[in-house]
């Protein structure tokens, strides 16, 4: 009996050791991502959802801005660079591949007490260039417009300014480093205006229509809503050239479950 008991203990210890080894293997299969703060909600949702399909994978994201994420891929400190703008030709020439995984709308927001519901594209341009400085000039109350935007290097700022063709022309009162604080700043300042990703909109701010069109999945997909940009997961070389783990990540994103996640966080899947 004593020998049998010892054998049982040895067997249990072996099973525990094998389980530990398996877990150790899972923990070593990591994918590092860096980049856009606007993509944080989507990436975190994918990180959580992928565990059911590929439990051996562990995503390790950082959110330091689009340009920083692209640089991280180029210098080898990240596997994937998250960018909320198209890649520049110079970045592609360095070997980066532009993998568009979702389409996002850049939504113009004001404080909830603002009486204005809609701006034309030209009015929006003139506000950010400093030509329109008071809400009464666009049908609102006699209240100064406080222009808020993202910091230099932000993918959201780059996309916003490129879409409107106003690069290096904006007259910002405040430049904010992250998406969340933009919402907080607009919420707290009467007369403030800012731009954020569609998926972070909540009841604390008021989204404006542009040229009479509200941002939605339908208006983004059919092109009616003009302020839209890609969510890019850049890799060094094509997806087919990446290791098996990275290929599995993109396979999950393109799967039915992955597309559900993209829709659930307020983004529009890319139509193949």
TrEMBL record:
<protein>
    <recommendedName>
        <fullName>Phosphate-binding protein</fullName>
    </recommendedName>
</protein>
<keyword id="KW-0732">Signal</keyword>
<feature type="domain" description="PBP">
    <location>
        <begin position="29"/>
        <end position="255"/>
    </location>
</feature>
<keyword id="KW-0564">Palmitate</keyword>
<feature type="signal peptide">
    <location>
        <begin position="1"/>
        <end position="24"/>
    </location>
</feature>
<keyword id="KW-0449">Lipoprotein</keyword>
<comment type="function">
    <text>Involved in the system for phosphate transport across the cytoplasmic membrane.</text>
</comment>
<dbReference type="InterPro" id="IPR050811">
    <property type="entry name" value="Phosphate_ABC_transporter"/>
</dbReference>
<dbReference type="InterPro" id="IPR011862">
    <property type="entry name" value="Phos-bd"/>
</dbReference>
<keyword id="KW-1003">Cell membrane</keyword>
<dbReference type="InterPro" id="IPR024370">
    <property type="entry name" value="PBP_domain"/>
</dbReference>
<keyword id="KW-0813">Transport</keyword>
<comment type="subunit">
    <text>The complex is composed of two ATP-binding proteins (PstB), two transmembrane proteins (PstC and PstA) and a solute-binding protein (PstS).</text>
</comment>
<comment type="similarity">
    <text>Belongs to the PstS family.</text>
</comment>
<keyword id="KW-0472">Membrane</keyword>
<dbReference type="Pfam" id="PF12849">
    <property type="entry name" value="PBP_like_2"/>
</dbReference>
<comment type="function">
    <text>Part of the ABC transporter complex PstSACB involved in phosphate import.</text>
</comment>
<keyword id="KW-0592">Phosphate transport</keyword>
């Amino acid at each position: 009996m004593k020998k049998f008991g010892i054998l049982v203990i040895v067997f249990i210890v072996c099973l525990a050791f094998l389980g530990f080894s398996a877990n150790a293997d899972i923990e070593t299969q990591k994918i590092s991502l860096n980049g856009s703060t606007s993509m944080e909600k989507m990436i975190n949702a994918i990180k959580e959802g992928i565990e059911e399909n590929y439990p051996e994978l562990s995503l390790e994201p950082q959110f330091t801005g689009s340009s920083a994420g692209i640089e991280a891929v180029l210098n080898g400190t990240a596997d994937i660079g998250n960018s909320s703008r198209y890649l520049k030709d110079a970045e592609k020439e360095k070997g980066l591949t532009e993998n568009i995984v979702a389409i996002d709308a850049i939504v113009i927001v004001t404080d909830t007490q603002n009486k204005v519901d809609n701006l034309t594209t030209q009015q929006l341009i003139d506000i950010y260039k400093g030509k329109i400085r008071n809400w009464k000039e666009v049908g609102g109350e006699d209240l100064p417009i406080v222009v808020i935007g993202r910091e230099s290097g932000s993918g959201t700022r780059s996309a916003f300014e490129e879409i409107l063709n106003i690069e290096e022309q904006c007259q910002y009162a405040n430049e904010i480093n992250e998406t969340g604080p933009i919402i907080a700043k607009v919420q707290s300042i009467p007369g403030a205006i800012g731009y954020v990703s569609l998926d972070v909109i909540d009841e604390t701010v008021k989204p404006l229509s542009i040229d009479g069109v509200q941002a939605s999945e339908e208006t983004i997909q059919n092109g009616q809503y003009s302020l839209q940009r890609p969510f890019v997961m850049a890799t060094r070389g094509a997806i087919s050239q990446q290791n098996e783990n990275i290929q599995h990540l993109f396979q999950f994103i393109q799967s039915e479950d992955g597309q559900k996640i993209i829709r659930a966080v307020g983004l529009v899947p890319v139509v193949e």
